[in-house]
Amino acid sequence: MFKSLLTLAAVCATTVVSASPVTVKRDDFGLEWISKDSSLPKVVLYNTGGTIVSTSNYSTIDNVNYGSGPRVLPEYLLGNYSVILDKAQIAIVDMSKAGGSSNLNSTLYFNVSRAANEHLCSEGSDIDGAVMFHGTNTEEDTFFGVDLTLNCSKPFVATGAMRPESYISNDGPSNFYQAVAVAADPKARDRGALVVFNDRISSAFYTIKTNGNTPDTFKALEQGNLGACLGGQPYWFFESSYPVARYHFDLSGMESGEDLPHVVVLFGSQGFDTSLMYAAVANGAKGIVIMGAGAGQLSTAAVAAAGELKSQGVPVVASLRPVTGASPPKPFEQNYISSGYMQAGKARIQLQLCLATGMGWEGCRDVFEKDMREVIYNDATSYYFS
């Protein structure tokens, strides 16, 4: 099996294997479009790697120790599952690096966002949407970062796999097909970035990884799905709308490859050691997210430390430890910022973007708290119950 896999992967480095005639054309962006039909929608694929292009040297039932086998190319998937080219023309942008997604940092979502803004949002662009392959361990960091920085209504769809390509019942090809079908669908516009896994379509703003092993893992537990894929085709439950509290950050003034401000996440357990907060700042952190107990509750000592860091211009954001729910703002002014419905990972990304775009402490607080404060206290600037 693996010998044939290696052979086909090598072949697909230069060509696409398909039962139907395939053409390759270059456009003004320098993208090469793989196509059966030039009238089909154009979908650009950002390949950052991950399980979807991984294999195992051990077994066809190995879904835990894979990654040791040869990586397949997206061209291999298009060749083996050429039905994908019945939905769209595909251009591939390789952004993959050695190592799993746990080794990635904010530079990746910055670079993916810059590419997507150029390809999708440039005036006169005829590209209909984008799909991103990504390792699932940190995929929500990247798709959330792109969601908050994409400056047009075209669909950006994140997908991947929980089982490697070498697995006996892999999920990658189905996810790939469905992601392309969603990205090519005009009804996918004006919703923000989307996540397509396991027949479900959900909002990148709310979606988190809920299970470390099973294909049915990416979910918006409280907010629900936006649609489902039936027969591979997207069926939308709702008309187009953007998530409440979704903020847009403009990174166009930053240089490619520039690092975003360093933000660390700390676990707010019993006996939380506040020296970790000071140590993080001493090591270069410009912001801190603490997974507070319950609905983002911080210890008295942590609140005091947050006040000292606030005076230095270093924001502390309190997120929640449970898998779902919210960390709502208090009815009085705090030394820290409440994350609302954002889990710690997403709160970290948003705080990075707040700092990268020059917002001060109060500006960061408003981005996180304004919408929820307005609902709870009937005034986005009020710190007291009416």
TrEMBL record:
Q: Does the keyword Transit peptide apply?
A: no
Listed InterPro entries: AsnASE_II, Asp/glu_Ase-like_sf, Asparaginase/glutaminase-like, Asparaginase_C, L-asparaginase_C, L-asparaginase_N, L-asparaginase_N_sf
Single biological process term from Gene Ontology:
L-asparagine catabolic process
**Keyword terms:** Hydrolase, Signal
Q: Which residues form the active site?
A: T51
User: What region holds the L-asparaginase N-terminal domain?
Assistant: 42-236
Which N-terminal stretch is annotated as signal sequence?
1-19
Reaction catalysed by this chain?
Answer: L-asparagine + H2O = L-aspartate + NH4(+)
CDD domains on file: L-asparaginase_II
Molecular function (GO) terms listed? asparaginase activity
Name of the top EC class for this enzyme: hydrolase
Its EC number is 3.5.1.1
Domain (Asparaginase/glutaminase C-terminal) spans 262-368
Please state which protein family the record places this protein in. Answer: Belongs to the asparaginase 1 family.
* UniProt protein name: asparaginase
